[in-house]
Amino acid sequence: MNQINLYTTRVMLIAFLLTTFCSLVSLPAFADTAAEIDAEVVAAKAKLFAGSPEALELSKSSKGLLVFPDVVKAGLIIGGQYGEGALLVNGRTTGYYNTVAASYGLQAGAQSFGYAMLLMTDEALSYVKESDGWEVGTGPTIVVMDKGASGGFTTSSAKEDIYVFFFDQSGLMAGLGLQGTKISKITPD
Q1: Can you tell me the mean pLDDT for 57-79?
Q2: pTM of this prediction?
C-alpha cells in the first residue's frame, strides 16, 4: 500500500508543478525598464570581462555585443528559460532583446546565468538588428566558448560570426546551452 501512496504522491506533485509552470508560461511577459536593463548590462559586462580575458580581447574587434545579464532556467520534465538584455554597438545601447527557450526531457532543477554574444562581422550585426526574432542555430555561425575552449583562443584565430560566453552561473540544473533559443526585439517600459 505504501508503494501506491508514494506513486500517487509523485504523480500529483508532478501534475501540480506542470500546471503551475504552464500557467506561468502563459502569462504575458513584461519587460524591465530600459534604465534597469542598461544598468544590469553594464554590471554584467564588467563581470564577463573580469572573468574572461578572452572575451575582453575579442570584444575589441567585435562589431557588437548582445548581453543577457540574468537568464532564469527551470524545469521538471518540461522546462523553460527567459532573460532580457541589450545590444551594444560602440559601447552604446542600440536595442533591447529577450532570450526565450522551452525544453522537455529528463531534467529537474533551476538555475540562473548570464551570457554575451560577441558579434564579429557586419553581417552578424545586421542579422541581429534586422531580424524580427531568430532562433539560435539559424543565420550566423555561433561558437559557444567554454573554459577549456577559450584557454588557447586568440583573436587571430577568431573566424566565426558570433562567439558566446556564459558567466555568473548559479543554481542546480545540468548543462548550459542555447539549443532552441529564440532571440527577439522587445520594447522596455
Answers
A1: 92
A2: 0.77
